[in-house]
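Reposting from the mailing list since nobody answered there.

I have sequence plus structure tokens for a pair of proteins and want to know whether others read the tokens the same way I do. The first protein:
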Amino acid sequence: MSLIKQLWLAIVVILSLAFAGAFILSTVASKHYFEQQLQAKNDDNATTLALSITQIEKDPVALDLLISAQFDTGHYHYIGLVDPNGKVISERINNTSRTKAPDWFVKFTPLRLQPGQADIQDGWSQYGTLKIESDSNVVYDKLWDNTVLTALWVLLIGFLSGVAGSQILRRILNPLSDVVSQAESIGENRFITISVPRTKEFKAVVNAMNTLSNRVKKTVSEESARLDQLRLDNNYDHITGLMNHDYFVKNLDANISHEEYFHEGALIISRLTNLAAIDHKLGYKETNTLLKAISDTLQNACSLQPGLSVGRLNGTDFAVFSNQPADSYSFGNHIKKLLEKIEGTNNKSININFTTVAMRVTGTDDAGKMIALSNKLLNEIGAEHSNVLHVISSGDLDQYQDHHENEWLNLLTSALDNRRIKLERYPVINQAGNLLHFESPARLQLEPDGKWFCAGEFITWATQLNLMTRLDELAFETAAESLSNGAQAIGLNVSASAMRSQSFIEKITGTVRARPHIADKLYFEIPEQEAFDHLPEFHQFCRKIRALGCKIGIEHVGTRISRLGELHDIGLHYIKIDASVIRDIDSSEANKTLLRGLCMIAHSIGVIAIAEGVHTQPEIAVLKQIGIDGMTGPGIRI
């Protein structure tokens, strides 16, 4: 029972007791008062009338008229004159009087009255006895009116007290809804904090829960920072701060395997051919400074364009990878010119010689083989060919890569207008091998009866042409229709533009409310970079989608580990850990440690951890030992 109802019940009980007490006290007091007044009236009227009769002639007619006159002037029930032998000389009886008080009230308040009596003399002898009894119904009417008036006042006061009490209680309990919401959120492992209310009892509870939430946030943040430092120590070069060889290869391989994001890119590898001579001339410390200058130049260039990553493959080789379509020669030449501008340190003029290799990367390439091929070519070119660029294979770009912007706009618009879209099905399973959901990247048929293109082939242009929200809406509509027809759970990739689009959220809300049975089968996934780059919008998206009963997750988790503590109060359902962390995990103790920490953080905030890009049975076996909750990738089958 709610506190408001309990308040009303308490008011009813209290006022009922108050009314009962007031009724008993006022009724008993009034009853005694009226009894005394009526008794005195009976006695006084009997004495007065007897005296009047004594003084007149005892004519029966005159007596009868006198008694009738008295009876008619007041409220009497009975007036009678009897002789000394008990014979009635004259009497009047009121048999028509009725009280408006109910019978139970009359029985509850009986009036104990004696008739007024007086003797009448005729000379020296007694003529008779006069008896007068007032009408008690008048008293009952008066008592009943007082009782009804008292009850009405009590009801009015009770109603006003209840209304006022309810409003006051609502104001007092207003923070309670926040306290309940916080308790429910903590029960769901969403450790939110709320403002401290002024109510003393609530203040103690909220302070305790806020302390718990802050402690969890602090623990998660500290552990995230520790894991991020571990990631940096194990995966990045200590001198330059660039990705080391193993991590760069895994990152390259992971990008290539993401067919929903990757179709074609470019890889540039530059070798510092005279590093030994530079080290001999400058010394260890200044050589490291030079290497850091090289890495800073490459990192600064990459920060200006999305989709670029830089690594140091060994002491002399630096690599730049673009996961966006790019002309290998132009891209390689741009990197070559940047490196040629690097000068010596401390005003020491030295020659810095680079040999650069550029190659086109497609979704069918193997990262390890590309690195090995470039290394072989660099060894064949040798140090005598300084500051040259060699393109391994420029290849012929896909027929659609040569289209201009307007042609891409027409192709994509036509595909979206005619709903030429389908969703793939890649299983995500738990440790027991049971299906969690299907990853469902979109495929578009750009021309009628043409080939189906994966997202990596058109997503760059869709983003540039501001069509991602429309694409995501169509993918959602397709998924909703499939789920309505009995399909199993579907995971949809959501772009940053769609996540921030109010129309997209409203479309989800309207569709799910119209088809509530599909809510728990809808999984929405936002890339890690987009979630953290637009964290307030991501918070809002999560809040609205969770309210519908749908699931929300972050995919490709791996580069923003230090910020995982910021997700403690969002209410995520799962995270998908990037393939660059998962690849060859069976042979990487550092990544095992990193993944255990990630799983611990995820579980501490009520989130399940899913591994992406799983290829081999040894990887699956190790992932199960570590405690991963789910897996997906080329090696996963139902």
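The second protein, same order (residues first, tokens after):
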Amino acid sequence: MNSSRRQFLARTAVGAAVVAGGSFAAGPASALISPLAGVGNTPITALTNATVIDVATGRRNRHQTVLISGDRIIGVGRNLPVPRGATAIDLTGKFVIPGLADMHVHALDTDRVDPALQLANGLTTVRVMSGDPRAYDWRDRTDAGTLLGPRMVVGSQIIDGDPTLWDPNLIKVLVVQDEATARAAVRQVKAEGADFVKVYSRLSPAAYRAIHDEARRQGLTVAGHGPDKVSIPEVAAAGQRSIEHIHAIGLSVSSQEAEVRRRLLAITLKTGDYNAWFRQLHPIEWLAANTYSKSRAADVFGQLKRRDTRVTPTLTMHRVLDMPDYTAPDPATLKYVRADTMGTFEYVLENLYKANRPAEEIARQQQMWAYRQRFVKELFAHGVPILTGTDTGTPWMVQGFALHDELELLVGAGATPQQALRAATVEPARFLGMSDDLGSVEPRKIADLVVLDADPLTDIRNTRRIHSVITRGRVISPTARTQLLADVEAAVQEPAAAGAVVAGGCCGTHRPHS
């Protein structure tokens, strides 16, 4: 992330008027109340009688009061006294968790749709994995407080090799041929306002190395795909902050890695022929899946852990791409999606992912998906730091709602509910360099919280049972949340503005609305 951007995100809006020191600690009543004099006239909100979930430890702290002033938590404690004049919200029987993060989204619709759906689903932070002027505008307006939405960290345009996978009629990509064009691309995306550089699958090793070197010079970090021609150990050694999806990692843990690498280098493409890449990649993935090496995996996963290279599995995306014949939209969320978007989802699925599949690939759908799940279980078992991300824009996904699918899929793959929640709270805060501000319910931290009607540690599906959301200290009550969703439902029935992007697909696919 741009260093100046990180400083802006971490800047405190309210002075350090802290009521209780330490995690969930409560001292004498006089000591708890007296520091409030330093808050001035800033209103205080008191969340009372709540069970606060400590995601880092899995502990349930019952009968807690959480005091909020401005955008900060100023006190957390058992039966903490509510200051005179505070607005008290009784949360008896409710559970409070840190705000959730989706670390792989794409801007799909308008500012009346995407940010509202994300907040209504408890997402208080999102990482947009392909930037454009619209996403940069949303980021800046949410930071300024003029647009209600989650905190946004926005990447660059996709930087890919030549020929790129993407049809320029579908998505704008910066195509680089060599070190010089790679460095120029990094300088360009910094000037455009990117918080980090997004790298893609068809970069040459030389261009990839040049991007990292130039990004360091420009004060930017790098995240994205593991390129086909660069091994995962090389990706981690280069300093890539996160690896999106798990297909590239799987290709680096085969007992026949030399053959896997030979076949990857033999892939041939024309510009924009994503479908041809998928068709050529599948048999290579199948070989790697069936030659998975425990010793090789232990080595590669160990390197990822030691270098703190995060992995964003995006199981929501892999499920659709691995099993396109077995997935479908959720009828309950269709009212939040434009008819045009659904049409584009169908187009993308049929033309980019399903077209030209041989019979053996069709027959392997469920086996490939089972392999992905086992793979993610191994990542957790080896202590690789995991980030929750959905790649919202993939067919059938709906902003915000998709993160709850991802949490459920992570647990289905073998993670505990606590591990899944950690990937959506603690790890994103660490990744963004904001552990002092986000990721837990503690004094001095930004008041990004989700109030649930049921315990997510008992059943991860309970993250869907949202009572209310607090974003930077602003309470979105149950009534306000219902209105947010109703406004989105109305907005998607209206014509989109000319030129607006209203749909997406894997890793940023979208078609301009005409």
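Reply #1 (J.P.):
I read it the same way you do. Confidence is low (pLDDT under 50) at residues 6-39, 502-506, 510-514.
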